[in-house]
Design brief:
heterotrimer, A alpha/beta (342), B alpha/beta (420), C alpha/beta (188), A: 342 residues, alpha/beta, two-stranded antiparallel sheet, globular, C: 188 residues, six-stranded mixed beta sheet, 7 helices
């Protein structure tokens, strides 16, 4: 796994911290280790002028992911987008902020449409042109699930990227099967005896992707953009069905401050609620260790969608249940193990 | 080359000659033999440069076709009935985006009750979606229409569905002249997209369009179909030149010149109607037939010209708009709207769920139309006895049970009684 | 137009029989239309298939209600459905059985038809002998050719060759030929 300490020479071990984070800045690393976004000739596949909210995690994640994919494919990339926030804020009629060929068909069929695009490129004798399908959690874990599984099963040459902000944000913050337990949404209001989303529901599409045995599955986060780019680059070096699940906080839907997006994403990793791992052909090949574990409260507190948990004794008990989920993830993915991979 | 061949196989071979590049389909009765045939031909190399994709649902099938078509490949799929509805969202998406996909629709009734037999309810369910709809009368025409469909779709950048009566045509073995590759190539050039996803020239396709432009987008779709009214006969004429036979076109007529009564119908039933008309003519009755090939675009003007001289028009259709009557009859009314001295239009609903339309029944209903036309829609060969029994029963008993099962039980009871 | 209705049960090759007959007629330069009565695929369920033969284009698409000939692949059907419904009084009845018409209680129907138009032929036995499976359709078509003269044996053989791989085709042609030879043509 990545070491967070960059060694400049044998005698000097430098730790770089910026503003209380563990981020390593680009200007202090070598060329090859810099993020794609640091380069002046990045492709700007998703260029400025789009209408995303201030602090949108999805816009950040998509920009990094698609530019990394463009770099990896020498700009030979076609993107298929499901209906959702990304599609809506990047193509406000009559403008588009995409500088790469881009198709929006429907909500639930991005994976299948991408299969068709990839097939067309093969049949036209242009195998160097690669295809990405992308959508939010709603379009991936719920309505797009059937087509996603079909694409996985056929091992079609598509990288599917899910930007997971844990609800149907574009339509007004309704619950999806990616919404975490206890979270308040418009359809799981913080009311009644069990406020927020129901415990015991939900599904892990990354795990399901692993179960399909496809060539590559990874989870990523906007808290670690180097890692995100690395995973996209790695994925584009593989042929066949690949899945990338990126955690992207949504200030509007989560009720968080727009400048807290990256911090919250990091807290999700560090408390164990969002495990970072990679898998190939059905086997987990590695997970990113939690550097400094934090209790789930630290992650939940800054989000108004969890505010009701802090308002009562009942709520405190629920926080305990959330902590149990985090602890379970830590055990399952060996997130605190000292040596070796999972 | 002339062959005695199953309709589905004839279609598969002809579609193969059209050089499809991406074929994706999900199996559903009665289209299965078509895609199985195509899959075989791709495997054996009879069709080259073609990706055949086994998808997990009809929704996926049309979605794959959408992606392939948008990326510049000639895309084809096939479905029927329930499958068409399962891909309904994608149906509107394909036409709204203006993608020249060709799809075979093996016309089959839509459930509930589940029914695998032929009628036109599936085509009617999406007739206003922006797809062009062409109905084949014979398996020869079914094969030929696919060639014309690709040409038409790609010329206008608009999808086309070729409607072929399930079982009656798809599973019938009859004489079909399968064209030669050279002739198809001369008639159907390679696909030149109007819009295409290409990294060398990136564009965005599928943006949201608001109130300021949506009407214009729809208007242009509608306008394209009016262009099709001219192109369809042109391409049919060109087809005749290239392949030597009449096939397709907007509509055709049979013995209508001096007809007092004109029948209008679509699909395979036209064959039976022609036999019936010959017999009626032999009896001195003045009757003719207009066979509609193009249902969308609806050939309003061409149909009006054929019908104005008649006194009565009988529309025989395998479809029912529940609560309204006959959708085809409704469309035919359009052709006669505001026409002074227009013939009366009478609606017959026949053949629903695969009930055979017999020449004997046609004789009865057409002869009746000549002397005692009716109001509203007439259901051909309706079993009034079991209907009456059911109506009586449900009036008496609240928990009367599922209607379909009740009717089936009454039918078998009646059959047993008759056998005794 | 000559209309043939073929009755049997699912799995007995009823649909193939109609198809082969249509191909045989086609090879003689005639128009032919073959189609099954469609039902859910199920072994053992009653199946009906149809074949129309004519010198000109066949436009009619209804099921065959007044057949000129009936081919019955499975005589147990007589107890289950009205097999002979609509059979023309000038028609032919060909039944797959090693028993006689009397033993099958078909005398009444046979007597309504012209002499020699109704007969049984042990098609399953011919099939077992030549093909190794009791699929009676090829043998019945051979018998049909002899009985009615509507198609020639060699056309039936050609249709079989077109449809099946060489060895299976040869076996089926042998069964058809054996049945053909065993049948006396009906008096004109």
């Amino acid at each position: 796994m990545n070491d967070r300490t960059i060694t400049m020479d044998a005698t000097q071990k430098l730790h770089f911290y910026q503003k209380g984070t563990f981020t390593v800045g680009n200007r202090l690393v070598s060329e090859e280790q810099r993020a794609v976004q640091a380069s002046a000739d990045r492709s700007n596949a998703l260029t400025c002028g789009h209408r995303a909210c201030q602090g949108c995690g999805e816009a950040l994640g998509a920009r990094f992911a698609i530019d990394a994919a463009m770099r990896a494919t020498d700009n030979n990339l076609i993107a298929v987008n499901a209906t959702g926030c990304l599609e809506v804020f990047t193509t406000p009629y009559p403008e588009t902020s995409w500088q790469t060929p881009w198709l929006h068909s429907l909500f639930g069929n991005a994976a299948a449409v991408a299969t068709g695009v990839a097939a067309a490129m093969r049949v036209k004798g242009r195998p160097e042109v690669r295809t990405i399908a992308q959508g939010g959690d709603g379009g991936t874990t719920d309505i797009g699930f059937g087509c996603l599984s079909g694409m996985f099963e056929r091992n079609d040459d598509v990288l599917y990227i899910c930007y997971d902000n844990e609800a149907y944000m574009n339509t007004g913050v309704q619950r999806s099967s990616a919404t975490p337990p206890a979270a308040r949404t418009a359809t799981t209001p913080a009311m009644g005896r069990a406020p927020g989303n129901v415990f015991g529901t939900g599904k892990s599409v990354p795990k399901i992707a692993v179960a399909h045995g496809i060539p590559y599955v990874a989870t990523a986060t906007v808290a670690d953009l180097h890692d995100l780019e690395r995973k996209v680059t790695k994925a584009m070096g593989i042929h066949g069905a690949r899945y990338l699940h990126i955690h992207v906080p949504c200030p509007l839907g989560w009720g968080s401050l727009s400048h807290d997006t990256i911090r919250l994403a990091r807290l999700a990793v560090e408390c164990g609620l969002f495990p970072l791992f990679e898998a190939e052909h059905g086997v987990i090949t590695g997970s990113q260790k939690i550097r400094r574990q934090v209790p789930v409260e630290d992650y939940l507190k800054p989000q108004r969608r969890f505010a009701h948990l802090f308002a009562s004794e009942e709520g405190k008990k629920r926080i305990g249940q959330v902590q149990a989920i985090a602890d379970h993830n830590i055990a399952e993915y060996h997130l605190l193990d000292q040596e070796g991979d999972a | 080359m002339l062959k005695q061949i199953e309709g589905s196989r004839a279609m598969a071979e002809t579609i193969g000659l059209c050089r499809p590049e991406v074929i994706c389909a999900y199996p559903i009765t009665p289209q299965t033999h078509i895609v199985e045939g195509l899959g075989e031909m791709v495997r054996t190399g009879e069709i080259t440069k073609c990706e055949f994709i086994n998808v997990e649902s009809e929704f996926a099938a049309l979605s794959v076709a959408i992606g392939a078509s948008a990326a510049g490949a000639r895309a084809y799929t096939a479905t029927a009935s329930q499958g068409l509805l399962f891909m309904a969202e994608a149906v509107y998406n394909a036409s709204g985006l203006g993608l020249p996909i060709v799809m075979t629709l093996g016309n089959r009734a839509i459930g509930a009750p589940i029914n695998i037999w032929n009628d036109h309810s599936d085509a009617m369910a999406v007739c206003d979606s922006g797809w062009m709809q062409l109905f084949a009368e014979t398996n020869q025409e079914a094969a030929d229409l696919h060639i014309q469909a690709f040409r038409l779709a790609e010329e206008l950048s608009m999808p086309v569905m070729v409607c072929v009566d399930g079982f009656i045509l798809t599973h019938a073995v009859e004489q079909v002249d399968i064209p030669e590759q050279d002739d198809v190539d001369a008639y159907l050039p390679p696909y030149e997209p109007v819009q295409v996803l290409d990294p060398q020239a990136p564009i965005s396709i599928g943006a949201m369009v608001g109130p300021d432009a949506f009407t214009e987008v729809r208007y242009l779709q509608h306008y394209k179909q009016t262009l099709a009214l001219r192109l369809i006969p042109e391409f049919a004429a060109e087809f005749k030149t290239q392949f030597g036979r009449d096939s397709g076109g907007l509509l055709r007529s049979y013995r209508t010149e001096d007809a007092e009564l004109i029948v209008v119908a679509m699909g395979s039933v036209n064959g039976t109607i022609k036999d019936t008309i010959d017999e009626m003519r032999a009896d001195g009755l003045s009757v003719g037939l207009v066979t509609l090939v193009s249902f969308r675009p609806f050939p309003t003007k061409a149909l009006r010209e054929k019908l104005v001289g008649a006194r009565n028009v009988v529309v025989i259709e395998k479809s029912l708009a529940v609560g309204m009557g006959g959708p085809l009859a409704n469309n035919v009314d359009l052709a006669l709207r505001n026409v002074a001295g227009a013939p009366q239009v009478h609606s017959v609903i026949a053949g629903l769920g695969g009930r055979p339309i017999t020449s004997a029944s046609l004789h009865r209903v057409l002869r009746r139309a000549l002397v005692q036309p009716w109001d509203g829609s007439q259901f051909l060969d309706l079993n009034e006895e079991i209907v009456a029994k059911e109506l009586h029963y449900v009036r008496k008993v609240r928990r009367s049970g599922p209607t379909a099962e009740n009717l089936l039980r009454r039918l078998s009871e009646a059959a047993e009684k008759a056998a005794v | 137009m000559f209309q043939v209705r073929i009755h049997g049960r699912g799995g007995q090759g009823v649909v193939t029989a109609a198809e082969l007959l249509s191909v045989a007629a086609y090879r003689e330069g005639k128009h032919a239309q073959a189609f099954p009565s469609f039902g859910s695929e199920r072994m053992g369920a009653p199946v009906v298939s149809f074949c129309r033969i004519d010198d000109k284009e066949i436009r009619l698409r209804e099921p065959i209600l007044v057949p000129d000939a009936l081919i019955v692949q499975d005589p147990t059907l007589f107890k289950a459905i009205d097999v002979c419904q609509g059979l023309k009084l000038t028609g032919y009845l060909l039944v797959n059985s090693n028993r006689s018409l009397s033993e099958l209680h078909l005398d009444a129907i046979a007597n309504e038809l012209p002499v020699g138009h109704a007969l049984t032929v042990p098609a399953s036995e011919f099939a077992l002998k030549h093909v190794g499976r009791p699929l009676p359709n090829a043998a019945l078509l051979g018998a049909f050719a002899r009985l009615t003269g509507v198609v020639q044996l060699k056309s039936v053989a050609a249709a079989i060759s077109e449809k099946f791989p060489e060895k299976i085709a040869a076996a089926n042609i042998a069964a058809a030929t054996a049945a053909y030879d065993a049948v006396a043509p009906a008096a004109a």
